Please model this.
Amino acid sequence: MSRHANTDHPVHDVFVKRHSPYAIDPSRDVSEDDVNSLLEAARWAMSSYNDQPWRYVVASKSRNAQLWDSVLNCLVEPNQAWAQHAPVLMLGLYQQNFAFNGEPNGVALHDLGAASAFLTIEATARGLCVHQMGGIVPEKIVETFSIPDGLKPATALAVGYYLEGGDESDERVKRDAAPRTRKPFSEIIIAS
Model:
């Protein structure tokens, strides 16, 4: 089944192929080199004043099962149900104040999003998939990982390979079979 986007205007193929599946193949690991390259792509995202306020907790099930379990347990239960199949789980956090002057960074969450988007595009180019989620338990993240004041948990990411030809009775596979849709192009433009 093709999960490619039907775009209204031509875009690079990596954007057409990118999707956020629930059905991630638990039998395929993600190499440490690939994980490092995803994080390197995130490192080069743009940010206000080049502050780079994003931080990640990165857990590979095959390389550190205890850390991976800790990350999984910081997700809301509905996300745990499908994310437990992902070989790599990450938590995305952001520094709330600028490093250079200590003032609040009003776009830090935007910058974390940009970094995670870069990470996702690199993953797609490598044949991997990333499912980003907001369903986390921030207080549990702070407690579990002794997060210092000023650093705020915001998202989680499941990284792996799409489960090709999964059991059609599997709820994850059913969710992924739904048509991919977006708002009309004209609806996202306020003025042009």
Summary: The beta strands are 54-60, 88-95, 129-133, 151-160. The two ends are 36 Å apart (CA to CA). The CA atoms of residues 14 and 125 lie 6 Å apart. Helices lie at 13-17, 32-43, 65-72, 77-83, 108-125, 138-144, 171-177.
